[in-house]
């Protein structure tokens, strides 16, 4: 699954730390990383042939300058990856961002895409921008949303760091869907990349339908809790046999809230989950729970299709 990783980058602050983190996937099958930078045609240096050469020429110079600068920066990233024994390809393209990323993923037969872009809102809080959302919607392969979530206070100032030990402790929420099962198979590969601890989570939603009498739902809920505890215990034994230290949790509540709270309480380094669950409707590639988890989680999220 991790043979070829596509990493689109705009050379953000944590671009190199993200490469440090994902290079540890080499023992789990990583062979090559494709480094991509897209000069966007709808950006300030876009060039369109409208018959105005006096305006076009300076724009062309700008684009070529950007292309050369991007190529140099990608080469510096490539040097590090080559030192780790990972093959590298670099690409600088001009076009619309998402189509160019999807085209590169197809052309290179990539098996994983890394989306590391984030923005800050007016309150200074991190949130995932529309670029990451669109990558996940369009991608046919898993997407790793690499978030920088480690905060440390140094001499009275809060400093932000990228967590390089991304794969050490994993939270795996499952609803037993086919997509969740594919996420489960992905976790097995991460053991070779240093994953050693695993938190298995199943969520029983609280009173999913208003027309169900609460007394009836309470009995049904208790049955569901016990049944899912048993299923998680079976899964726990399977993962333990593969070398994981495993903890199981069955919690009642709203799925997004429970997943985010559990990730924080358990201090996990990564959430691995399917892109959609049992409520999946044919043609929709991006489930509401996974979408909200990606948007609001402080932890990196690996979304498996």
In short:
The chain is of the alpha/beta class and 305 residues long.
Walk me through this protein's architecture.
By secondary structure, the protein is of the alpha/beta class. The protein has 2 domains: 4-161, Rossmann fold (3-Layer(aba) Sandwich), CATH 3.40.50.620; 169-304, HUPs (Rossmann fold, 3-Layer(aba) Sandwich), CATH 3.40.50. The protein contains 8 helices and 14 strands. The chain has helices at residues 15-22, 53-83, 97-107, 130-138, 178-190, 214-241, 255-265, 288-296; strands spanning 4-8, 32-40, 87-95, 112-115, 119-120, 126-127, 143-145, 150-154, 157-161, 169-173, 197-204, 245-252, 270-274, 301-304. The protein has a 10-stranded mixed beta sheet with strand order 3-2-1-4-7-14-13-10-11-12, with helices on both faces. It has a two-stranded antiparallel ribbon with strand order 5-6. It has a two-stranded antiparallel ribbon with strand order 8-9. Strand 1 (4-8), helix 1 and strand 2 form a beta-alpha-beta unit. The termini are close together. Residues 45-56, 119-127 and 279-286 have low confidence and may be disordered.
List segments where confidence is low: pLDDT < 50 over at least 5 consecutive residues. 45-56, 119-127, 279-286
**Terminal-residue CA separation:** 12 Å
Provide mean pLDDT, rounded. Answer: 82
**Computed Rg:** 22 Å
CATH topology grouping of the largest domain:
Rossmann fold
Strand order, largest beta sheet: 3-2-1-4-7-14-13-10-11-12
Structural class: alpha/beta
Strand element count:
14
Instruction: Give me the number of helical elements.
Output: 8
* Count of individual domains: 2
Shape: elongated
Order of helices and strands: EHEHEHEEEHEEEEHEHEHEHE
CATH architecture of the largest domain: 3-Layer(aba) Sandwich
The share of residues in helices is 25-40%
């Amino acid at each position: 699954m991790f043979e070829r990783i596509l990493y689109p980058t705009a050379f953000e602050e944590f671009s190199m730390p993200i490469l440090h983190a994902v290079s540890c996937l080499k023992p789990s099958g990583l062979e090559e990383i494709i480094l991509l930078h897209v000069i966007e045609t709808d950006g300030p240096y876009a060039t369109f042939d409208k018959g105005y050469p006096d305006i076009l020429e300076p724009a062309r110079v700008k684009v070529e300058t950007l292309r050369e600068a991007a190529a140099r920066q990608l080469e510096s990233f490539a040097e590090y990856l080559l030192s780790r024994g990972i093959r590298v390809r670099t690409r600088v393209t001009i076009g619309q961002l998402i189509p160019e990323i999807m085209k590169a993923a197809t052309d290179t037969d990539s098996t994983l895409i890394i989306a590391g872009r984030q923005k800050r809102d007016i309150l200074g809080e991190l949130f995932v921008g529309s670029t990451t959302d669109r990558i996940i919607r369009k991608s046919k392969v898993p997407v790793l949303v690499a978030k920088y979530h480690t905060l440390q206070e140094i001499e009275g100032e809060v400093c932000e760091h990228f967590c390089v030990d991304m794969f050490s402790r994993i939270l795996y929420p499952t609803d037993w869907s086919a997509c969740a099962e594919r996420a489960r198979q992905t976790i097995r590969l991460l053991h070779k990349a240093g994953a050693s601890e695993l938190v298995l989570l199943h969520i029983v939603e609280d009173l999913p339908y208003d027309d169900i009498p609460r007394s009836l739902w309470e009995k049904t809920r208790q049955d569901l809790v016990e049944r899912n505890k048993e299923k998680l215990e079976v899964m726990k034994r399977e993962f333990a046999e593969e070398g994981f230290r495993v903890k199981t949790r069955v919690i009642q509540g709203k799925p997004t809230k429970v997943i985010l709270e559990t990730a924080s309480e358990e201090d996990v380094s990564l959430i691995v989950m399917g892109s959609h669950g049992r409520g999946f409707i044919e043609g929709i590639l991006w489930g509401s729970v996974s979408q909200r988890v990606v948007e609001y989680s402080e932890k990196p999220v690996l979304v498996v299709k």
